[in-house]
Specification:
Blueprint (H helix, E strand, L loop, with lengths): L1 E5 L4 E3 L3 H18 L7 E7 L9 E9 L5 H4 L16 H4 L6 H11 L3 E7 L2 E12 L12
Parallel strand pairs: 1-3
Antiparallel strand pairs: 2-6, 3-4, 4-6, 5-6
Helix pairs in contact: 1-4
């Protein structure tokens, strides 16, 4: 697995650590499950400045894996993967474990923390990106561990 991060150390996620852990476990489990053999999973963490006045910046975490081609008709159905028990290809039900609830649960957890989640498939790679708001810590409290 390859992890790259570009974030400011004086920012704190406004996130529940248990929910964040479950989100990461769900996304990494899917990436491992559906990756082609001998390919690397990539995780990118980056800051996304807000475009709206007064809105917080966001931290975006993207999990990418190389997978079998996604048929064009299924690209339009990617958002339906957030539905309960939905899988991209029904033949996967017979060859991979899981109930089809992981992305449904993940979306609920991300949205409960004020974030967003989206799916994409391009250049042979499946991508799941979620964002969570961040807030700048005042300089005098930068040494105090964040509890959010």
């Amino acid at each position: 697995m390859h992890v790259a991060a570009d974030v400011d150390e004086n920012q704190s996620l406004l996130a529940d650590p248990d929910r964040l852990e479950q989100i990461l476990l769900n996304l990494l489990d899917n990436a491992v499950k559906y990756s082609l053999p001998d390919t690397e999973i990539e995780v990118l963490v980056e800051r996304q400045p807000s475009v709206e006045e007064g809105a917080p910046d966001k931290i975006a975490l993207t999990v990418m894996n190389v997978c079998d081609p996604v048929p064009m008709q299924d690209l339009e159905e990617l958002d339906s993967l957030f539905d309960k028990f939905k899988r991209l290809d029904d033949s996967l039900v017979r060859t991979t474990r899981g109930s089809g609830l992981g992305l449904f649960i993940t979306r609920g957890l991300v949205e409960a923390m004020g974030g967003e989640i989206k799916l994409a498939y391009k250049d042979g790679r499946f991508q799941v990106q979620f964002t969570v708001p961040v807030y700048h810590q005042p300089a005098e409290s930068a040494d105090i561990p964040a509890t959010a």
